[in-house]
Amino acid sequence: PLTLLIILFEIGDVYYHNGNINGSISYFRKVLELDPSFEFALQHITWAHRDIQDTKEMVRYAKMHVAHSSAERNYRDLIWAFSSDGQFDKAMETYDHAISLFPRSSSTTTWGISQWKGKILDLTGKYNEAEHAFRSLIDPIKSKKNTAVGYNGLFWHYMLMGQFEKTEKSFRDWRKEMPGNLRKRYPRHFDIWDDMRMKQAKSQDTFKQ
Hints:
Blueprint: H1 2-17, H2 21-34, H3 39-51, H4 55-68, H5 72-84, H6 88-101, H7 116-123, H8 127-135, H9 144-161, H10 164-177, H11 182-185, H12 187-208
Helix pairs in contact: 1-2, 2-3, 3-4, 3-5, 4-5, 5-6, 6-7, 7-8, 8-9, 9-10
């Protein structure tokens, strides 16, 4: 019965968003026992296992989700799952298949898959190739969304490399491509950026002394 499925899912959803991850998983499982194709339950149980770092189960449910619904965000979750589980070859294989289906990212946020080639390359220590992958997304004429994703990828890449000036430039370029109140929508970017600037200023002050 659809009503029962919705009630069970809503209870799990409340648990999930209140930080009771394990409690939410038990309700999402109940939903899937009744309807293995219930998309929101597949999505949320994948995220829940991500949040508790159970990568094997994250992979299992992400694969089930893609089998039932081949949306871009579901491929994104599967690529993320394989990467989290250290299955980088499968992550790249999934990315290659997904990008053939969605050659332009549908979003400037984390839903898109276009950023994941660079991410996988960074995770496997192929830093020059990762930089090239992010830069290849930057083409404002063809796709402003992919361009924003490219600058965002470079921001995190250069931060990983400890290259402050390049991180700063990528952050500013990303902000130019993104509309609205970014500090409200992406607080983590700004928190990390503010922290980096503070550390850089302290480092310069120490050097001057």
